């Protein structure tokens, strides 16, 4: 790749990354909201997880991962301890995690973004790559949620509306 | 948001962003490859586009958008002039665009990433936001491609394998 000449250019600041991520999280919140209560927990295509399970995966990653990075704690993440029975419970937790993410993200230094960390005792990558992965993973699963909504005859929110 | 304190931190360099993007493009290429020839052009869920159309959208954005940014050309993008009939034609074009992206991306300066540009005469945002959008849009549609593959009984490539 012809990237040598670009090695020292900043692509974006950390506050710009956080704003982008929280914009994605707002959109994912609207996708959760768009599902009817029952289908959020039950609807599936081809044996894939219902969208509630994907949302729980995202909840178990973002905030807990940043906390782990800041505290240099490599404990495994916990997808099992939160068992919401309603959409409202998921959305409430989602909003709590918004603040957790803002708090811990702001504590990560510029140098730290470049340091390798064994996230959850399993994902040993530079911190910035781990954070990009959280966002990509969210966009990936949300894209699947869009197909579920279409298959349910529901118009998904606009992909470009983030705030 | 509690982002004030982070305003001057670099999140990542432009070469790191390009490497991440090309890793995503490698994975999307494998998703294109995973479709049987016929289903790539015809299979759909709930009236959505077949994956070939999504791939053509991606091809019409990345390279042409960077060229537009570098040349300050706000012409609309062209999703209509390339009409591949086979998977092989799509993959060939995909690989050509890999080089186009590397070339034009390397010509964007650090200052330019922060400047607002009216991409394709339609999307007026800072250049870094436009570029993030290309990647997000790709991850979004590829996630939909994963559902198509599952519905076809085909195991998609691992999400985390990029190179």
Q: How would you describe this structure to a colleague?
A:
Two copies of one chain form a homodimer. Chain A is mostly helical and 163 residues long. Chain A has a single domain (13-151), classed as Four Helix Bundle (Hemerythrin (Met), subunit A), CATH 1.20.120. Chain A contains six helices and three strands; from the N terminus they run E-H-H-H-H-H-E-E-H. Chain A has helices at 14-34, 37-42, 51-70, 87-106, 110-114, 127-151, and strands at 10-13, 116-119, 123-126. A two-stranded antiparallel ribbon of chain A has the order 2-3. Chain A is globular. The model of chain A is unreliable at 1-6 (pLDDT under 50). At the A-B interface, strand 1, helix 1, helix 4 and helix 6 of A face strand 1, helix 1, helix 4 and helix 6 of B. Strand 1 (10-13) of chain A pairs antiparallel with strand 1 of chain B, so a sheet runs across the interface.
Class by alpha and beta content of chain A: mainly alpha
By CATH, the superfamily of chain A comes out as dinb family like domain
Count of spatially separate domains of chain A: 1
* Binned strand content of chain A: 5-15%
CATH class group of chain A:
Mainly Alpha
Largest sheet, spatial ordering of strands of chain A? 2-3
Shape of chain A: globular
Give a count of the beta strands of chain A, DSSP E runs of length 2 or more: 3
- Count of discrete alpha- or pi-helical segments spanning 4 or more residues of chain A: 6
